Amino acid sequence: MVTNLPEPAKELYQDSYVQRGDVPERPIGELKNGLSADRLSCGGFCANALKMLVTVTAYALVVLYRQACSAVQGVGNAEVQTLRERLWKVPAGVARRGGVVRVSMPGDWEHRQAREQSLRAVREHAARLKQVGEPPGPKQAT
Q1: Do the Cβ atoms of 35 and 80 come closer than 8 Å?
Q2: Mean pLDDT per segment of 10 residues, for the chain of length 142 residues?
Q3: How far is 58 from 71, CA to CA, in rounded Å?
Q4: Minimal CA–CA distance to 80: which of 102, 107, 95, 60?
């Protein structure tokens, strides 16, 4: 690395050069590999644009999910593929009785605790966002 910045070389290397892989390479890799954004095989431009928009929206949700679960070990910095394999593709049974849907997971499922912790963290994060960031509604005319 060649630079004219006055900071010590080791500090520049650790703080700038090493960190370069996180942005934008990581999101691009996750979009391509984790969410299949490179598979735009529809015949028309609009169809491919819509597929890309859906994929980018899905990635934004993943970023929010990781942000909410930052305190959960193995979830806050996990790649999309890891999240899918460990937490989202759940070995569960679904039963519907009347208007109630019941989901039951095996007690010995190895990622059960992480999933429960992440669901709790998402619930708490959503409540915090609602309290702090909810914009005021339109003012009523008097």
Answers
A1: yes
A2: 81 75 71 82 88 90 92 90 88 90 87 91 91 62 50
A3: 21
A4: 60
